Amino acid sequence: MSFDEVMAAIETYGYWIILVTLFCGIVGIPAPEETFMVLIGMLAAQFHLDLGWTLMSAFSGTVLGLIASYAIGRYLGIPFIKKYGRFIKITPELWGKVSEKFHRHGKVTILFSLFLPGLRQIAPYVAGTSSYPAVLYVVLGLIGSFLWTFSYILVGFWVGDRLPLEILPWLSVLMVVLFVGAIFVKKVKWKGGSEA
C-alpha cells in the first residue's frame, strides 16, 4: 500500500481504519503497524486527526487483536494453528521458539512482545494454547498495548510539526534497515560466542 493510498484510506474511513489496521497487524494479517502509528501521530500533530481519538482507536484495535488471537489459541487450539498458521506467517519453527520463550518468560513476553515483529503476532496464540490465565493476560495485554501504541503515536506527534509527511516512507526504509542490521549483528555475535 502506497503512502497516498494510506492517506486516502484515513481520509475516507477515519478512526475505523486505525482500529482495523492495528487489529489486523496483531492477528497476523500483514500491516505496517509501527510506521502506520508514527504516520497517524504526525497527522494528529498537523491537525488532520484528533490525538485523543487516534490514541483510543489504535489502543482499541491492538487490545481487540490480542484478545481475538488469544481466544483462537485457547478455544481452537494447536490443530487450528498448525492447519491455518501458514496464512498468518506462523511456521512450526517460529512456534517452537516462541513457545519455549513464552513458558520461561510469560509475563514479560505479553508485556513487551508488541515491540517485536513476529513475536507480537504469535505470542497471543501461544498464550491461548497454553491456557495462560485469561484475566492476567488481559491486564498485561492492556498495559503492553498502552505502552506500544502511545509510544509510537506520540513519537509521530512529536516529530509531526518538524518533518513533512512525505519523509515517512524514507523513515520506514531506515527502520527496516536498522532492524535487519540489529538482527545481523546479533547473529554475528552469537556465532562468534558459540565458536569460542
TrEMBL record:
The entry sums up its family as follows: Belongs to the DedA family.
| Keyword vocabulary terms for this entry | Membrane, Transmembrane, Transmembrane helix
VTT domain ranges (all copies): 32-156
Q: Which organism is it from?
A: Pseudalkalibacillus berkeleyi
Q: Where are the transmembrane segments?
A: 12-31, 51-73, 134-155, 167-185
- Keyword Transmembrane listed? The answer is yes
Pfam families attached to this UniProt entry: VTT_dom
Keyword Membrane included in the entry's annotation: yes
Signal peptide region: none
Q: Name the chain's protein.
A: DedA family protein
